[in-house]
């Protein structure tokens, strides 16, 4: 069976995505066994960092599971999973402070975060429709239907691309504040960088897959239009 070069690239990107997910878990588990010199738990570090940045009204809540950590911009709350909330490891503090980084972005209206919030309702609406339009356009060889699918899918791809600087910026803020506030020593910064870098790689892989898929659909549309 003949595979188009784009199919091969997408397959490689999927492989990268799977590898990135394994790396996130492996890196987190590794540094979850390395306690920080400060002895702070993720919940304590998050609370101190929020307070230091004038976010005393933003609560830190416990959420069940592992790596389910997130900042909820609608409720304005930082939610931390079991090992992060209660743990005092480099991994725990890195993840907790990363989520606080998003809360700080929200406070200062970080442009890329604002853009992501603005297009989220649109993306949420079209993301479920786009696959149906793309499949329908391919099955019935309807270029118009395929074009609408590409347009809708483009919104989802744009959302993922905007997410990249948001995530990298949150990690950058987290590392800087973790050191300056004494949560970790300079010698522990490398471990924090590895934890945050592994997590960021999953977003990069997801964005790469989406971009390649979009490029493939555009190529198919151009051939059908010819």
Write up this protein.
The protein has helices spanning 5-31, 42-52, 82-86, 90-108, 111-126, 130-139, 143-180, 189-225, and strands at 60-62, 70-72, 77-80. It is mainly α and 226 residues long. Strands 1-3-2 form a three-stranded mixed sheet. Helix 4 (90-108) crosses helix 7 (143-180), helix 4 (90-108) packs across helix 8 and helix 5 runs antiparallel to helix 7.
Lay out the secondary structure.
Layout: H1 5-31, H2 42-52, E1 60-62, E2 70-72, E3 77-80, H3 82-86, H4 90-108, H5 111-126, H6 130-139, H7 143-180, H8 189-225
Parallel strand pairs: 1-3
Antiparallel strand pairs: 2-3
Helix pairs in contact: 1-8, 2-4, 4-7, 4-8, 5-7, 6-7, 7-8
Instruction: Detail the poorly predicted runs.
Output: none
N-to-C CA distance? 25 Å
Oligomer: single chain
Q: Provide the residue-averaged pLDDT.
A: 92
Class per helix and strand makeup: mainly alpha
In N-to-C order, the SSE pattern is HHEEEHHHHHH
Shape: elongated
List keywords for this structure.
elongated; three-stranded mixed beta sheet; mainly alpha; 226 residues; single chain
